[in-house]
Input
Amino acid sequence: MTTTTTSVPPAPSFAPSDTPEEGSALATAHAQLATAAEILGYDEGLHRMLATPRREIHVAVPLRRDTGETVLFHGFRVQHNVSLGPGKGGLRYHPSVDVDEVRALAMWMTWKCAVVNLPYGGAKGGVAIDPRGYSQSELERVTRRYTSEIMPMIGPDTDIMAPDMGTDAQTMAWVMDTYSVNRGYTIPAVVTGKPLAVGGSLGRGTATSAGIVHVTSAALAEAGVPLAKVSVAIQGFGKVGSHAAEIFAARARVVAVSDQYGGIRADDGLDVPRLMEHVQRTGSVVGFDGADPVSNTELLALDVDVLVPAAIEGVLDETTAGSVKARWVVEGANGPTTAAGDALLAKNDVTVVPDVLANAGGVVVSYFEWVQANQTYWWTEQEIADKLEHRMTTAYAEVSALAKREGLSLRDAALVIGVKRVAEAHQIRGLYP
Ligand code: NAD
Output
């Protein structure tokens, strides 16, 4: 078979991230940190240290396709901060992945781990690939090559990966196997979100979504509104959105959901278990009988109580956030609201439960998985569910109490708590040398 090389995208820029593109994930992350640093009264030096990733790696990931053709992808791993412990963060496969997006996601992981009091720093990885266009064996080769290229940076005590957009438990099994084979023995704690058969944790698959429902209940309870009385719209029907829909539907009314192909709505409430079967069969929520079509933009503006953006970054911006009618926005995705979007939501009295708090359930149970893997002792599903609920409701209560005491938004309060914990660890450890 002849091997040809095609599709070689230009190498990405590794320019310093001081001036990210306006409205980008990194610009949003920088603006949020700047607000927290100002509230905390940090000087320029400390602020810059907190804004700057500790380590970054850019790797070329060549793939021999099933056809024999060779294509090339760019991959990244960024450790934003490791003052509180090893880097922790997902691996994303999406065509729009670039180094600035990975930097933003890594920074959010740092604050998120600190908000829920985990002994981790923040990291993130990504490969600029659309996984839908490749076979399972091609994705396995991409994953194994990417893993071996970033091998010097990862490890159970240095940087622990998990699934994110476009990756799943199988991807983590390939990462774990590649790492272990190269080290010469099995090291389950190098990744979390693995299949149960190779040391995964019960409850990990639904943890992010369960956490979203815990913080939503806590926010509603503060306003005296029972969960059973609310309507919910969810953008994104992947690992986070679909399970959030399932858990919400058992206790509230889920009236609309969407994915990248479009959305559906049913004002009396969607039959989510039947919808899951439809998605299993067709690959999308679109075309589900018993519901009307709705666009992604329309979904964000529906007259619901709770809106859960659980897909991609930047969907609530200066053009969409002003139309949000929900009283609560609970951020399932990372960075779904831009700085301009945030200002509009605040102006309209929409309560935003921020990503670093709302979607932290995934990393909490990832931490439980890592602890279990390190002890080679496994907990029951009930133990995990109880510990998750306790972490999420405790973190919510801390954030909400600070917000009330200091007159801050929940986002600013969460960031202040997260940033302060990281900065304190950094200052107590001191600067080497
Ligand atoms: P996923 O790949 O499983 O699902 C993503 C979903 O978003 C899919 O339904 C996809 O169709 C939809 N989508 C993609 N582009 C879209 C668009 N332009 N408009 C509308 N929908 C679109 O990913 P996931 O793991 O569910 O992650 C979703 C978000 O949650 C990401 O921001 C991720 O970083 C964040 N997150 C995930 C976890 C986790 O445990 N998986 C934890 C914390 C945060």
Notes: The first strand starts at residue 55 and ends at 64.
